[in-house]
Design goal:
The protein has about 230 residues and is α/β, with parallel strands linked by helices. It has two domains: about 1-125, Rossmann fold; about 165-225, Arc Repressor Mutant, subunit A (Orthogonal Bundle), CATH 1.10.10. The protein contains eleven helices and five strands, in the order βαβαβαβαβααααααα. It has a five-stranded parallel sheet, sandwiched between helices. α8 (about 170-180) crosses α10, α8 packs across α11 (about 215-225) and α9 (about 185-195) packs across α10 (about 200-210).
Length: about 230
Amino acid sequence: MRVLLADDHSIIRNALKFIFQDLEDDTDFEEVRGYPQLEERLTHASPLLDMVVMDLQMPGYEGLGQIRRIVDAAGPIPVAVFSMMENVDDIRAVLRQGVRAFIPKSTDEALIGTLLKLVAGGGTYIPAQVSGLTDNKTTAPALALDASLAPGLDRSMVTQAPEDPRLAGLTRRQREVLALMSQGLSNMEIGNRLGLNLSTVKTHVTGILKALDVDNRTQAVLMARGLTSG
């Protein structure tokens, strides 16, 4: 696999390298630090790329139309955004340019590799705060998009994936805990957010895993986001 990493911070590029190498040992990397270099690289057909992972806040940014140009230039190659951006409206605007995934840099480290693997395999990812699974909303299921919908993504074109029936069996409090797990919060952080002691949070997490019939937190979060049937 050959991955183009576009980020002006070397620490982020190096972190992504470690994550990809854990996914697949035989991974080659190319690196650019800004939009001009990124767009220039995509004008060359070889060596063939398998994936592009890009930041948004890089030198040379010209606007959303530039992201669309990058997606179009990449062609069938999946483009994933890995960004500090958290504003829901801004994330939606970026997704509408056709990127396959928007992965906030605040995402739990254990999930990032799984999400990159999903995108590399042709999938699409939308963060929980955009798809509706937040600590303020516990009933709306996340969106699971077919990769064919990624180009020209518009929410009016997308239908919601049916919620796994196992999710319906969760209590209100378990859904709140699961929503915060989906944001990458630790048990301690969840307890602080909900006013619960650590042992109570652990009990809720154990109950969630049992109710969803999954082995770990990552599987539970992916199920809640509609990315796996568990």
